Amino acid sequence: MNRTDEYQSPKSAATGSGIPTTGAISVRVRYAECDPMNVAHHASYAPWLEIGRTELLRAGGKSYAALEQAGVFLVVTKLEIKYRRPIVYDDVIEVRTTAHESGRIKIRHTYELVLIQRLDSDPDPSTDRRVPIDGVCAVASTELACVNSEGRPVPLPEWLVPGA
């Protein structure tokens, strides 16, 4: 199995409707996500962040598909990633996602991509200089705007606002 998409229990309070504000999911890095040196390509990070966001919704009993069927769409308006250490083929990382309130129309998420397993064992920064001491290989943030089916900004549904 190349991917271990197992959602883990939310780590903090949920929004008023039960959507968690934090959560984590484990992902095994696939060969197709890497460059010729077996290092995860920078373009692979954005889908991992999306997995983190969608699993927060799913943990609260919602899905992006249901959101879109209701005519509510979330579009990425900002994406920032700071790469600290390389993630390589077959590593298991944990995508830790936190939702933050960011206004009536936008929602912000922050992320930590933490190295959980390398070469089928616990990562050891004393023997592998590519392993960060705190385990965090990358940090990121996204901002999403809520729009309707015509692409016009609309307020976030109340149940989706963190802390509501």
Short summary:
The protein has two helices and six strands. The chain is mainly beta and 164 residues long.
Question: What layout of secondary structure does this protein have?
Answer:
Blueprint (H helix, E strand, L loop, with lengths): L6 E2 L13 E7 L16 H15 L4 H6 L3 E11 L8 E10 L4 E12 L18 E12 L17
Antiparallel strand pairs: 1-2, 2-4, 3-6, 4-5, 5-6
Q: Could you explain the architecture of this structure?
A:
- By secondary structure, this protein is mostly beta strands.
- The chain has a single domain, classed as Roll (Thiol Ester Dehydrase, Chain A), CATH 3.10.129.
- Helix content is 13%, strand content 33%.
- It has helices spanning 45-59, 64-69; strands spanning 7-8, 22-28, 73-83, 92-101, 106-117, 136-147.
- Strands 1-2-4-5-6-3 form a six-stranded antiparallel sheet.
- The radius of gyration is 17 Å and the shape is elongated.
- What spatial form do the alpha-carbon principal axes imply? elongated
Order of helices and strands: EEHHEEEE
User: What's the CATH class label?
Assistant: Alpha Beta
CATH superfamily: Hotdog Thioesterase
Name the strands of the widest sheet in spatial order: 1-2-4-5-6-3
If you compute it from the alpha carbons, what radius of gyration comes out, rounded to the nearest whole angstrom? Answer: 17 Å
Provide the domain count: 1
The CATH architecture classification is: Roll
> How confident overall, as mean pLDDT?
89
Q: Roughly how many Å apart are the termini?
A: 38 Å
**Quick one: how many beta strands?**
6
Q: How big a fraction of the residues is strand?
A: 25-35%
Q: Using the coordinates shown, work out and report the CATH topology.
A: Thiol Ester Dehydrase, Chain A
Helical fraction = 10-25%
Number of helices: 2
Structural class, by secondary structure, is mainly beta
Sheet bearing the most strands, described? 6 strands, antiparallel
